[in-house]
Hints:
3% strand, globular, 3 strands, 3-stranded antiparallel beta sheet, mainly alpha
Amino acid sequence: MINVVIEISKYLIILLMLVYTYWNFSYFRFGEEERRRRVCRRQNAAMFLLHFIAYLILYLKTEDERIVLFYLAQVVFFAAYVGLSGIFYRNVSRLLVNNMCILLCVGFIILTRLSFVRAVRQFLIVAVSALVTWIIPFVMDRVWQLCRLPWLYGIVGLGLLAVVYGVGNNSFGAQLSVTVAGVAFQPSEFVKISFVFFVAAMYYRSTDFRTVMATTAVAAAHVLVLVCSRDLGSALLFFVTYVAMLFVATSNYLYLLAGMAGGCGAGMLAYALFSHVRVRVEAWINPWADIDNRGYQITQSLFAIGTGGWFGMGLYQGMPYRIPVVEKDFAFAAISEELGGVFALCVLLVCLGCFLQFVMLAGRMQAVFYKLVAFGLAVEYMVQVILTVGGVIKFIPSTGVTLPLVSYGGSSILSTFILFGVMQGLYILKENEEEYEERAAGC
């Protein structure tokens, strides 16, 4: 009987995710605020129902009463986060709040299936991150001096990366984290935000050749330290973000072409100089040649995705635990196997919806500094999604980055909350500004 319920439930979960995703894009069709709020309320209903069905299956399969308590704690958190966001920040982007919640919801479901202990730990990190970053929109709306500290962002960020290179913990051949008071965190997750603020502040001041060269030198230093630390995913993320921001700030195609050429050259040089780069590339080109060693992770990921097909095996019906580090780098493969390819594509479309909203916000901002910050964070977010999913499906070599708000990882969760908090702050700032202009025009 339970297997019948699981089989039916997986189609209901996919249907609800499809409906949520449809409303995610239909939101932009409506100009009236009331109609947009109605769409957001429907999204909330779909999300809570999907969440209930998934945890019902998790409970039926395990009969673990802790799952019931964990589910109720999540319901309280999501209800409070959605409700309080609208109360404390009148002009908050409700769509962005909803998208954060649905991605967190998917992450909790798949983590609970993989490891209950890690799911609970992730929930505690999410709760703390939400509380800590709650003030960011308030600060963004009232502090105007953020554009005056470019070298502070650059030096502090570069210093943190240098510390990781010097004394960082080794994880799967790369130096990624440092431990302070028994707590390990990954500085590159936070430096990627300070990096965007550094570049935006520099190009807010000037886009002359001298400034471009100075900014490029500091950006190159960030990338070089990451490469030396073997954090290839972050290095690529920083590089692509910088080239995109440089082009937007200067509108100079020569810089864009030079950046692309430099990236290709740096990639070839890294392949020639660093053995770990060659290992990653060779495992990507032909993982089947060494399926029991270097190619094991990617081949197991491809097996999982192929087994799940379009509609998935159903929760607890697959074997995602066979993929090494599945809860971090390869959470997308676990989602594809048990919840299905359709569901996984909807997750990607929700991420795309966040990116589009970020880019639209960047286009609306009049201040160059805020415009560059919004665009830079948008690029960072989407490139991280592409790197994660691309590595899982063997589109590109695996880079070891996480899927924002879905994969397990405290530093990733907190840094993504900061990113979304900054974007919410810019959105509220723009909405408040437009309201003031409308009132002034009416007078």
